[in-house]
């Protein structure tokens, strides 16, 4: 049999010897002939598969040095994979009666990615999709996915890593939805490691592209956690920059931590999660940014209040408290640059200006029009004092954008108050002229004609 592959085995020939000779020869032609002549040789898929695996030779490219003397070509792993993939999954599972047979066949034939993908799609009570997650973690951690794509599969190496990472990530997100952020974090970390090439990615031994993919996914998933309720506490701890939290496990460099957190704070603002943005900026020590966020929100709340929205009043008190808290933290912080100090002072000035504007709104709303007008004339950042000389400089353009937003409603309130009070000494008439001149000097702002 070793010499003549075309010869049919005589009746009664020892099957065990036939199998042994075929395995030893490793000849694709002899193996195919044996199976064709003796189709009932194996009674189970498992026996058949182990025979095939035993006959496989590690022959990359089928080099001439490994071809047998009589011209027989060795039986390779790719030959086995091509043969197995000719049949639909239902052939192996007996139309679902034995659901694990097909992934078992794929795993034994080193088609690892297709195996876990098949298991992950199971939605039955057996929980095979959960098994797929943990098998994926092991395979990815050992970096064997690059060898797992079978013939005819169009999935590249990076795509295989991405597919497995997606399986792990989706499973972790179920814990996120349940509020179990700590467990979600562990699965998210494994997902990032998977796309980065496995265990080697943690010690920086993966290739450049894998490291980049890992870092991108890791930051994305950490941000997702950070934005959830309890996420800041989990990643940064109860206080400080994050010395007590989980973030330091994944980002050990302080500058990298700061860059990540500032980017997360920016994303919080874009998502309308201003309170989280402020908290993150405070933790990082970016007090001027935190104050600017407070001022932006306070400006919006004042505008909402002037338009009759009920949530404006409750919101403003919390924002002012938050701003004062930031200033208190800043006061006792030792690691502040000169530039940061200047920015903090600028934002502190804006905060105090917004407080005055809010106070005027409250006085007018409570019916204290006279007191409201007195406060308007005291404003140091607007040229509305009747006793002061006219200012032609572009005062409005020098104001913070957050103050500029509040000016139109502030002027409306002043004019409304002027309509309800008696002018006994001409000062209110002078104030009205001041407002008219200020509006005339800022016609480019397209304010309503009511101001003129």
Describe what you observe in this structure:
- The protein is mainly α.
- 62% of the residues lie in helices and 0% in strands.
- The chain is built from 21 helices and no strands.
- It has helices spanning 15-25, 28-37, 45-55, 77-84, 89-93, 101-108, 112-120, 128-141, 157-177, 181-195, 208-226, 231-236, 247-250, 254-270, 274-284, 287-306, 311-331, 338-365, 369-378, 401-418, 427-440.
- Helix 8 (128-141) crosses helix 9 (157-177) and helix 8 (128-141) packs across helix 10.
- It starts with 14 loop residues before the first helix and ends in a 12-residue tail after the last helix.
- Residues 1-6 and 62-70 have low confidence and may be disordered.
- Belongs to the nucleoporin interacting component (NIC) family.
- One of its GO terms (molecular function) is structural constituent of nuclear pore.
- One of its GO terms (cellular component) is nuclear pore.
- Keywords: Membrane, mRNA transport, Nuclear pore complex, Nucleus, Protein transport, Translocation, Transport.
- It is found in: Nucleus envelope; Nucleus, Nuclear pore complex.
């Amino acid at each position: 049999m070793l010499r003549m592959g075309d010869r049919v085995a005589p009746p009664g020939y020892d099957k065990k010897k036939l199998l042994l000779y075929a395995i030893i020869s490793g000849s694709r032609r002899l193996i195919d002939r044996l199976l064709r002549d003796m189709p009932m040789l194996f009674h189970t898929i498992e026996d058949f598969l182990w025979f095939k695996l035993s006959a496989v030779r590690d022959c990359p490219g089928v080099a001439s040095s490994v071809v047998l003397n009589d011209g027989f070509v060795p039986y390779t792993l790719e030959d086995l994979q091509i043969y197995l993939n000719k049949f639909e999954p239902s052939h192996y599972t007996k139309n679902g009666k034995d659901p694990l047979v097909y992934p078992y066949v794929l795993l034994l034939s080193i088609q690892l990615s297709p195996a876990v993908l098949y298991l992950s799609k199971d939605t039955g009570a057996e929980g095979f999709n959960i098994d797929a997650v943990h098998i994926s973690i092991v395979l990815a951690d050992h970096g064997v996915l690059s060898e797992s794509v079978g013939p005819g599969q169009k999935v590249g190496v990076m795509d295989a890593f991405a597919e497995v990472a997606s399986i792990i990530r989706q499973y972790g997100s179920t814990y996120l939805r349940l509020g179990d952020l700590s467990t979600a974090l562990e699965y998210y970390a494994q997902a990032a490691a998977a796309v980065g090439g496995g265990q080697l990615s943690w010690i920086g031994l993966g290739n450049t592209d894998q490291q980049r993919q890992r870092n991108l996914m890791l930051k994305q998933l950490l941000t997702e956690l950070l934005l959830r309720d309890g996420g800041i506490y989990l990643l940064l701890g109860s206080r400080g920059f994050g010395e007590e939290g989980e973030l330091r496990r994944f980002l050990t460099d302080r500058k990298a931590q700061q860059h990540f957190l500032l980017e997360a704070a920016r994303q919080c603002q874009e998502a309308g999660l201003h309170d989280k943005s402020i908290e993150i900026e405070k933790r990082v020590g970016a007090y001027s940014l935190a104050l600017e966020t407070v001022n932006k929100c306070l400006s919006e709340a004042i505008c909402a209040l002037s338009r009759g929205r009920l949530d404006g009043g409750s919101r403003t008190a919390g924002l002012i408290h938050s701003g004062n808290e930031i200033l208190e933290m800043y006061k006792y912080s030792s690691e502040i640059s000169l530039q940061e100090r200047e920015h903090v002072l600028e934002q502190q000035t804006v905060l105090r200006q917004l407080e005055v504007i809010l106070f005027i709104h409250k006085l007018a709303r409570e019916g204290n029009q006279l007191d409201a007008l007195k406060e308007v004339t005291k404003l140091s950042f607007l040229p509305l004092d009747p006793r002061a000389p006219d200012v032609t400089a572009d005062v409005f353009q020098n104001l913070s954008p957050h103050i500029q937003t509040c000016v139109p409603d502030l002027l409306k309130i002043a004019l409304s108050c002027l309509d309800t009070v008696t002018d006994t000494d001409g000062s209110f008439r002078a104030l009205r002229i001041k407002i008219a001149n200020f509006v005339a000097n800022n016609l480019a702002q397209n304010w309503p004609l009511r101001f003129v």
